[in-house]
Inverse folding.
């Protein structure tokens, strides 16, 4: 089955710096790669996603890149702000029983210091 | 649009007791998911419904967990009997035919 690895597990940056979180996946059939942000005690919320027919997608200060050959994708946050502090999860689709499901990474705790 | 609703938000029980969680997905979403999120880990899929049919329950501990989605709308997840290791946040999510999943606020279960 699909396995998604995520690094680093924790990331501390200064406000204004950039942050990069990387994920690798194992299922070559994966075609959808969302990123979720989860603040303490709250639900995961989708912040950006990318499909396998696209190499890069950007939305204001966040961007995601996908390398299908290497089976890895990354989240890039520029000009980080304290409110970016949260746990970030990557995920990749896995096909089982004819239906797609998401397999999540283990999460990256991002701390942005003022 | 209204989001995914879950109840209760918190539940504390003793081991070997039973507990049930309820989820109301976003209106019109055919697919419903139950995830278990243990502290410090990513969500793990327990069961996935397409309308009222189960399409994936490969990671559901069927000796103690059960779930149903009557009429293809609301869903309940039950644990009977609970173990200490079941302490976690149980998240419900729903999606339409596209990929994006919307999560509910979760139920935090503590088993003593």
């Amino acid at each position: 089955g699909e396995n998604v690895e995520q690094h680093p597990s924790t990331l501390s940056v200064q406000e204004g710096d950039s942050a990069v979180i990387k994920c690798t996946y194992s299922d070559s059939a994966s075609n959808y790669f969302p990123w979720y942000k989860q603040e303490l005690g709250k639900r995961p919320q989708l912040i950006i996603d990318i499909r396998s027919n696209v190499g890069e997608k950007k939305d204001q200060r966040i961007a995601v890149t996908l390398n299908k050959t290497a089976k890895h994708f990354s989240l890039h946050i520029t000009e980080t702000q304290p409110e970016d502090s949260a746990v970030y999860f990557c995920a990749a689709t896995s096909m089982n029983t004819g239906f797609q499901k998401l397999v999540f990474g283990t999460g990256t705790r991002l701390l942005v210091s003022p | 649009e209204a989001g995914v609703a879950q109840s209760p938000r918190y539940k504390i029980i003793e081991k070997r007791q039973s507990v049930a969680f309820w989820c109301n997905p976003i209106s019109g979403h055919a697919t419903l998911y139950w995830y278990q999120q243990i502290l410090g880990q990513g969500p793990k899929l327990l069961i996935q419904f397409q309308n009222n049919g189960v399409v994936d329950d490969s990671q559901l501990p069927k000796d103690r967990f059960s779930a149903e989605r009557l009429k293809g709308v609301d869903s309940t997840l039950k644990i009977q009997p609970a173990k200490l290791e079941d302490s976690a946040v149980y998240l419900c999510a729903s999606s339409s035919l596209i990929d994006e999943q919307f999560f509910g606020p979760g139920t935090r279960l503590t088993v003593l």
